[in-house]
Amino acid sequence: MRSAPLASLDPDEGDANLDHDAVFNGLLLAVIGRRRLLVLVGEDQGERVSLLGRLARHIEIDGSLVMTVTSSPGVTVEDLVEVAGRTYLGPTSATLEFDQLVDTLEDRLERAGTGILMVEDADKLSLETLRDLVDLTGEVSGSGRFMQVLVAGGPVLEQRLDQADLLPTLRAVGTLYRLDSRPQPPSRGFPTNRPQQAEPGRGHQPQRGVVRMAEERDVRLNPDRPPPLLRTMEGRQDFRAQASPYRHQAEPSRRGTAVWFGIAGLCLAAAGGVYFLGDRNLDDLRSAAQELTGRAPNRTVEVPAPLPGAPVDGPSIPAEPLPPPQASTGPVGQPAADPGDVALAVPPPPPPQTPEMDGTGPEAAEPAVQGPKAPTEPVTPRAKENAPLLADLVEKAERQIDERQFVTPKGDNAMETIDAIVALDPEHPSAGMLKARMVESYRVWGRNAERRGEWEYARLYYQRALRIDPADQQVTNLLDSLDNRRRGGRVARDDGPRNAAKPTPARAERAPPKAEKPPARPAPAPAEEDVATRILRTLPRETTPESPPADEPPLPTLRP
């Protein structure tokens, strides 16, 4: 037979007692490197089966031929191949003879390109069977295909390989890993699979997924012949069912191989090339920024803002009466009359499902939040280097704030964009301005919710503001005193926007005289609702605690 070229990976026999992730990555690299013989040694059988199941699933995704079998004392290589092959092919292989089964497996190996045979409890095999398994890795098909073999067992397996004089072959064409049986640290965030102890009084229970497949085959084909003692996994699905929950984790090797360093270098080179090229279109800049910050690019659909006065979907709630027009003719900076005083004369409406924003509530009388525009010229050395990227990120963050995407959805919100700005330039002044604008927006929404009597929404808005800026003392005081205001049925005095200009003495002298406040008019009786409006008002509307209601008014963009 022809011998295929050997892989050039170094054996890892010196790395003892590695954790699960390191062993998994090492075995995966050995399979990719076409190592012929792989050995896994571990004391806990449950951990070995869990790791083998995870590795089998990962390899099988690429279309490779993966066969699994659990051995028993006294079996031969032919028995292992026959049981593993029939388990892999399924019920269609019941009528095939052994030679036909081998031809079918060779054909599958030719079409798949690569194949591996995983043998659990290999420490129970005889020395001759271990030598035959190693010889199986040296058989090459006409097109150069060969079957890799992974044997797993307890610590005795390494001694059995030494007794069979196979350690020199293992060093030349294979690799060996020792699995640490100590519990994994809880910081990984994954549960650890441990074999469950049998309950007292129930006696010995067979391992789940293990059947005597050879016994059924012999009983069916040769009724007079006693069946051999051979155990195998009950189908590939049951073998996979014992795998560890690490199946969704596919992180790179901790040893930092040249492959991962090469990929990282290509990413950095691509990001630098995008910056230095003359054609810096918007899509390329956004892709480079996402690669620098470690986030995948997100494509969002621009949704036009609703026109002023347009109807809002959801239950219709009677608006609170506005104060008389004469009440707003006072000097500049003097707060207008609280509309809650007039609303007390009207019977309170039923508790709303969502905050009602129809342009006539207290939000319409709330002064707009003003603030300086984020600087367009770079002010720090790092900002000068990444000026195009920072300008695009600042524009994106302002757009997301206008669309009320503060912390949601994940991957397309203002907080993540601000984090990208800080990653490029920690001293960029626009980061603090944008955060202050979001905190002020939540504060205004919370005060409006208090005026409407929606205390839970007010608490939610204040908590979201503190998630953005935990050191904001004004929002902290509002949240701490919310329960007291709720029990007293009053709303705290609003000092207006934090950046509102206070009137100077000269302005106060030139201000028109304060008009006398006319007596409060009786509140108009609520209009009679038709049947359709009453039905719509009773329908619930879904809101998520991670994002503000869609009908809250956006605050204006920071402009001078």
Radius of gyration: 36 Å
Spans of at least 5 consecutive residues with low confidence: 1-17, 184-215, 225-256, 295-368, 499-520, 522-527, 539-551, 554-560
Relevant CATH superfamily of the largest domain: P-loop containing nucleotide triphosphate hydrolases
CATH architecture of the largest domain: 3-Layer(aba) Sandwich
Q: Approximately how much beta-strand content do the residues carry? A: 5-15%
Explain the overall architecture.
- The protein has 560 residues and is an alpha/beta fold.
- Helices cover 42% and strands 6% of the residues.
- The protein is built from 22 helices and seven strands.
- Helix 1 (20-32) packs across helix 2, helix 10 (258-276) runs antiparallel to helix 11 (282-293) and helix 15 (387-402) packs antiparallel against helix 16.
- Residues 1-17, 184-215, 225-256, 295-368, 499-520, 522-527, 539-551 and 554-560 have low confidence and may be disordered.
- Pfam families: AAA_22 (PF13401).
Quick recap:
With 560 residues, the chain is α/β, with parallel strands linked by helices.
